[in-house]
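Each record in this resource describes a single protein on a pair of labelled lines. An example record follows, reproduced without changes.
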Amino acid sequence: MQDAYVLFADYAQREHLKMTPQRRHILDVFLEQQGHVTSEELYEKVKSTYKTIGQATVYRTLKLLSGSGVAKEVDFGDGVTRYERQEGDDHHDHLICESCGKNVEVLDETIEKLQEEVAARHGFRLTRHKMYLYGICPDCQGKGR
């Protein structure tokens, strides 16, 4: 994958935006995160080390990171947008518990191949896709939820 800093800087330049110290700091903190993060969660982490950055700046920068290809928006069906690092062509799907919200990232070559085959049967060439599978996780099943 192209370096996230170069990718974001190139995008900012194409969009006639500046790579401000605030955006750079938000990018630094975002890249340290593992898994999925909301704008509010990222804001809390950012403001602990850069007190003058506002929540709106974090939110707008996450949108820019998404537009640049550094971040990817994910929606687990609970009304909260989360972001994760976009790792080049590395793709995964999600299993989401409708009871507790737990999510599991799934990388399955068989599923990926089937999606390509379905698209081809209908004359499509896939450029991207998202797949979210909803159900009840084993923990919640055991609790009778």
Remarks:
- The first helix runs from residue 4 to 14.
